[in-house]
Automatic annotation (TrEMBL):
GO biological process, alphabetically ordered: phosphorelay signal transduction system
UniProt xrefs under InterPro entries: CheY-like_superfamily (IPR011006), Homeodomain-like_sf (IPR009057), HTH_AraC (IPR018060), Sig_transdc_resp-reg_receiver (IPR001789), Tscrpt_reg_AraC-type_HTH (IPR020449)
Ranges for domain Response regulatory: 3-119
Keyword Membrane among UniProt keywords: no
Protein name: Response regulator
4-aspartylphosphate modified-residue sites: 54
SMART domains reported for this sequence: HTH_ARAC, REC
Keyword Phosphoprotein among record annotations: yes
SUPFAM superfamilies: CheY-like, Homeodomain-like
An example molecular function term from Gene Ontology annotations: DNA-binding transcription factor activity
All residue ranges annotated as the HTH araC/xylS-type domain in the record: 396-494
Amino acid sequence: MFQILIVDDEFIEREGMKRLIQKYKLPLTVLEAENGEEAMGLLRTHPVDILLTDIKMPFMDGLELCRQARDLLPELTIMIVSAYGEFEYAQRAIDYQIFSYLLKPIDVNEFIRAFTQVIELCEKDQEQEKEHRLLGLIHAYQHQALHPGGEVTSGIDFARHRVQMMLIDYDLPVFDAEQDRVPVMVKSAVATPFEYVNVNEHQSLLFFLLDRKGQPQMPEPAKLLEQLIRADDGRVTLVAGSLLNEESELAAEFKLMESVLEDKFFYQGSTVLFTDGSQGKEELSDTISKLMDTVYWHLEMKDDYGFRKGVELFFKTVDGSGQHSAIYIKYLCTQLVSKVWETSGRDDNQAFKGMVEGIFGSKSLAALKAQVHEVMAMLGKEAEEPSAEQGKKVIKDILKLIEDNYMSDISLKWLADRVFLTQTYLSYLFHKEVGQTIVKFITLVRMQKAAALLRDTHLTIAEISQQVGFMNNSYFCKMFKIYHGCSPAKFRETAG
């Protein structure tokens, strides 16, 4: 339900509009005022979504009310209804960004048409406000433009629900082209109610609402992943989070999901990952062998960071799966040690034989892991990372590439190829040095460039959208409001 404030000095006119709202079951609760001064008092003390005002009233007329209301509440939706239809009133109304101008006596069809449109607008604003709040929470800080100085809440009723978050990550920027694709695809696979927010053009975050009183209807990640895969979208990664009981847990869980998402580089296809370390419980064909192929590739590329991370992921996967025999896991470890041995150029067969015997003699997974790490340490595969100076040089080059190419469809792979690093290592290094993912940083740069173009040029919003790398103008406007707290048009008006 939305709240409307009806302002008219004639009681019968207010009653007539209230009856129309009730008769046609419009989702509105009504506040009333007899003049502009009374209306301003209500606007200061009540949450109002729509202001519907007459023009000719005592104490403060409707146009002055519109001016003061717009200054007080820049995003308020304002409608005028008046018997005075002269051009001068309509022209002045435009200055105050009036959504609709209705003439008395009210034409019922025109009334319904106007209110259908205004309710749709309010619903869109409400959805964006919800996304605004959710993004502010999951990042555990408020963007400078996200409700500055105020406390952000998710709007989720944690007294009634527990929440499971799932992060959808596409290699391609699918949400730029189809920003509202998630609800339709998820509803066809999952019966559990959910909220969602597009984090950027590559990622969408789901908040599944599990009833505390009833039996939780847990969504099935594998079934959802299957629904999300489309041939033209490239690889899809789904990160399934743990059950959360409090709003304060959202930010930490999202941070963990972003960390787990880095493991996607070790899987060759679309994959489900888990924040609770249970990777492998899903029936993923050839998971281990494909993972090991990627680990070996990092070894051949001399990416020690990627290799070490891949080995850790291997042990995490076999530990959580319960699907693989001890003999098979030990065999894979001997293969791993053999590859490391060959890469190092060692030819001491007796020493190698001793390592293999140590692996097969391990009595637990922990002991097996210790054996493998001992070999890696001995052969220099747990050496220090490249120097801080080298890392800063790489990041400087990446920032320059982003600055020069933000208007194009740049990706992590494109950037990694240009600085001769693997995606795994570049992703790690960028996050370490800059404090956020490359995808987030590119979106932030585009939003900053868009703000500068709105301030300093007369380009249309559609032209600016294209110049900063967005295919879809409406998606650009949506993301701009999330980052800057207002629409591009409002930003330009206030910046001017």
